[in-house]
Amino acid sequence: MEHRTSLGVVYFGVGLTLGTMGTMVCLTIIRPFLPLASFPELRYIALFSPLVVGVLLGLRMRHVGLTENLRLMGALKRSLGARPH
């Protein structure tokens, strides 16, 4: 692959977006069950968790995609734990 830096940015961006969106959807679903009034610290954890999960998934996807020379979908499957075909 020639443009490894460009692919790394794309892999990171896709992983960041999917990780952030997935975490936000999960938090939206479980929000009625969270005791935010009783535990104010939980509010800050819920606030920053989409960013943390998104960055971690983006970095993992970039690393897996570039080290194993995979395409985008293969890198996504592999970084989530599934084997690409």
| Number of beta-strand segments | 0
Structural class designation: mainly alpha
Largest sheet: none
Low-confidence stretches: none
How large is the share of residues in beta strands? under 5%
Could you spell the SSE succession in H and E letters? HHH
Q: Quote the average pLDDT.
A: 89
Number of helices: 3
Our Rg estimate from Cα atoms comes to 16 Å
N- and C-termini, Cα separation: 20 Å
Helix content: over 70%
| Outline type | elongated
Task: Describe the 3D structure.
The chain is mainly alpha-helical and about 80 residues long. The protein has helices spanning about 5-30, 40-65, 70-80. Helix 1 (about 5-30) packs antiparallel against helix 2 (about 40-65) and helix 2 (about 40-65) crosses helix 3.
Short structural summary:
With 85 residues, this protein is an all-alpha fold. The protein contains 3 helices and no strands.
Q: What secondary-structure arrangement, pairings included, does this model have?
A:
Elements: H1 4-30, H2 40-67, H3 72-79
Helix pairs in contact: 1-2, 2-3
